[in-house]
Amino acid sequence: MPSLRRSRRVGLVFNHRYLTHNPGQFLIGYREPYPFAEPVPHPSSARIASRTKHLLDLFGLSDAMLNIEPELIGDGALRQIHTAEYIQRVRDISRNGGDAGTGAPIGAGGERIARLAAGGVVAAVDAVMRGAVHHTYALVRPPGHHAMSDRGMGFCVYNNVAVAARHAQRRYGAARVAILDWDVHHGNGTQDAFVHDPSVLFISIHQEDLFPIGWGSLDQGGDEQGEGYTVNIPLPAGSGNATYAAVMERLVLPILRQYGPDLIIVSAGQDGSAMDPLGRMSLTTAAYRAMTRQVRDLADEICESRLVIAQEGGYSEVYAPYCSAAIGEGLCEGLDGISPVEEPYGPRAESMPATRVIGLDATAAIAAARERHSAHWSV
Ligand SMILES: [Zn+2]
Questions:
Q1: Which of 83, 87, 194, 332 lies deepest, with the highest CB count within 10 Å?
Q2: Over pLDDT 70: what percentage of the chain?
Q3: CA of 184 to the centre of ligand 1 (A)
């Protein structure tokens, strides 16, 4: 769609208050027998979001994007996904700080930042549904996709993307919303929110058996009327650019096209990168740029460009910000004044076999996913 190239309007949700979310320190495993282990800064660090914003500025992307202000989300929108008891519990914990569930720490006052994160993705949805922009990148924190209806989990407090999907349906009458979750971990909270619901398609590409254990297998395909609308694509550790490209081409894009959503939301975790301390995949910046282009072009084709990309995980302080900036570049491609996002490791980033080759185990995983999902989709 070349005519869209230069007239494309892209939004950016960011607010410096996101940088004040303080998850404290971190002991991997959270195990009691190691009281004297030396903690490290929490991997869900403000520095990653801060460095991402800095890169968006340096490459001219922030200037090319329309600034969209997040708002504190109210109880009504949160209640579409979360229980009243949980919302009250987060409010209580927020007085002094603590864990909003299992591994979802917030500092004092963190409840308001979590509301601003959910409100940021909702603001992104508002901007695309009203036609103010074609696409929006919501650089929010804390992330959301592990958060269940009644508890926080895995650094996530409120399920930002799930709340925003429901908002699109209630406020704008979106009949079908598609959520593509490419975070290296499984989006269990999002899956759980919509497991019975064919009006929200959930597709997750993730490392198999990583986190949370017991979630994201092929046999979890949606329940009752929702059967077929949960599409899990578990991949073996080590999968790289070539495997993700094949998954997009052979599974994700055909299923999205057949579903025909009114809006696409991406749960974008850049923790599938080769440098990530919490994942074991091998993606480079090129993969994130490529996947962004693919969903962008598909959104242009099938849903009047309505695409929201919401920040989830990504824990390499050096590399995750470049992967996220590559997403921004993918959205803004063709606009004036932007520079190509550099690959910080240069050609060496592409030296892993997984960038070019689909391994035998990944080939088998793709075949198994196609076999499973062919029950509902033409793939
Ligand atoms: Zn993750």
A1: 332
A2: 97
A3: 5
Q: At what angle do helices 320-332 and 46-58 cross, to 10 degrees?
A: 40
Domain count, the chain: 1
Kindly state whether residue 378 falls inside one of the protein's structural domains: no
Q: Using an 8 Å Cβ cutoff, are 272 and 312 in contact?
A: no
The pLDDT confidence band at residue 25, using thresholds 50, 70 and 90, is confident
Contacts of 99 (CB under 8 A, 6+ apart): 93, 105, 106, 152
Catalytic-labelled residue, pool 134, 146, 167, 185 = 146
- Which residues are within 5 Å of ligand 1 (an ion), measured at CB? 183, 185, 269, 271, 313
CA of residue 5 to ligand 1 center, whole Å: 31
Q: Calculate mean pLDDT across residues 2-31.
A: 84
Residue 379 lies in a domain: no
- Structural domain range at position 329: 4-373
Q: Say if residue 1's pLDDT is above 70.
A: no
Residue 255: inside a domain, yes or no? yes
Average pLDDT over residues 45-70: 98
Q: What's the CA-to-centroid distance between 187 and ligand 1, angstroms?
A: 8
Please tell me whether residue 307 adopts helix, strand or coil conformation: strand
In a domain, 20, yes or no: yes
116 has a pLDDT exceeding 60: yes
Q: Is 82 a catalytic residue?
A: no
- DSSP letter at 377? S
CA of 269 to the centre of ligand 1 (A): 6
Q: What is d(CA 141, CA 53) in angstroms, rounded to the nearest whole number?
A: 12
* Number of other CB atoms surrounding residue 317 within 10 Å: 16
What is the distance between the alpha carbons of residues 81 and 78, in angstroms, rounded to a whole number?
Answer: 6
Please work out, in degrees rounded to the nearest 5, the angle formed at the alpha carbon of residue 306 by the alpha carbons of 301 and 308: 125
37 pLDDT higher than 90: no
Of 300, 305, 179, nearest to 230 (Cα)? 179
Kindly give the distance from the C-alpha atom of residue 270 to the centroid of ligand 1, in angstroms, as a whole number: 7
Of 1-5, 127-131, 349-353, the range with the lowest mean pLDDT is: 1-5
CB 230 within 8 A of CB 220: yes
